[in-house]
Amino acid sequence: MEKRRVAPWGTLGIGALLLAGLGAGAAPVMAAPGQVSAASIGFTLPAERVFSPADQARVDRIEQEMAPVHDFTKRLDQISAGFLGTPYQADTLIGSADTPEKLVVRFEGVDCYTFIDQVRALALGHDRRGFLEALVGTRYRGGHVAYLDRRHFLTDWVAYAPNNARDITSDLSSGVRVTHKILNQRKDGGVYIRGLSPHARDIAYLPPEALTPEVAAKIHTGDVIGIYTALDGLDVTHTGLAIWKDHTLYFRNASSLKANRKVVDTELGSYIQGKPGILVLRMIEGE
């Protein structure tokens, strides 16, 4: 069972990426000052970002290798497969209520959040610039690189523009349950994200017993799977991607379990036994 966390998955930090054929990246370095206009999606890339030369080269190689692959689902599948075996590493994102946010790109270690947002950005981008634009749009509300605009909760992917996905959970089965939550509001009255106002949201989730073969067939490779939590103030405690292989549905995720500590594929039906349920989001192909 994946270790439960007591902070939103989006606030946790973010081997080698196999598709790129490179070793672990060098320590991140700051990009040169200066603003790069991203007029195509209406925001400006930040002057300060953590993006090592090794990872910049890796993005270039991935995008070159993926150039012949135009199907978005296939791009998600093949790019995410390149992360298998990559070490789990938390707390790589830079930013807090007291620390200015920086755009972090890091491939040599990922958590469950930076795994899926970097995969989506790589699948959307067709060069380094496109990757960075897609990452900003994926990770932040309104494309604004700031700590309080970071998508701290999985359902922020659906709730805020630019939309990363649509929530298809309720379409999967009549067995779906809906609960009302006040996100960011802890049971003790405190908050998880200082400076972020608690906000109400209805969360739909599919309990494990409702994941029948017929329901599983409605889930596509590349769909985002969130592990629902009953904890006050949170929507999920873990996330990853749905992957179909040999007629079996797997959960591709950056696992913090001691036995793994890396990106792995685990059979989804087995993984969710004993857990409250799952959310299923279908990524939108666009920024």
Can you tell me about this structure?
This protein has helices spanning 53-66, 72-81, 112-124, 128-139, 156-159, 169-172, 213-216, 268-271, and strands spanning 36-38, 43-45, 49-51, 103-105, 165-167, 177-183, 199-205, 224-228, 236-245, 248-255, 262-267, 278-283. The chain has 287 residues and is an alpha+beta fold. The strands form four sheets. The protein has a six-stranded antiparallel β-sheet. The model is unreliable at 3-41 (pLDDT under 50).
Gist?
The protein has 287 residues and is α+β, with helices and mostly antiparallel strands. It is built from 8 helices and 12 strands. The strands form 4 sheets. It has a 6-stranded antiparallel beta sheet. The protein has a two-stranded antiparallel ribbon with strand order 1-2.
Notable features of this structure?
single chain, 287 residues, alpha+beta, 6-stranded antiparallel sheet, two-stranded antiparallel ribbon, 8 helices, 12 strands, 22% strand, globular, disordered N terminus
Shape annotation: globular
**Beginning-to-end CA distance, first to last residue:** 34 Å
Amount of helix: 10-25%
Alpha plus pi helix count: 8
Beta-strand proportion = 15-25%
Main sheet summary: 6 strands, antiparallel
Q: Determine the mean pLDDT.
A: 87
Strand order across the largest sheet: 5-12-8-9-10-11
Number of strands: 12
Rounded to the nearest angstrom, the radius of gyration is 18 Å
Structural class: alpha+beta
Task: Extract low-pLDDT stretches.
Answer: 3-41
Order of helices and strands: EEEHHEHHHEHEEHEEEEHE
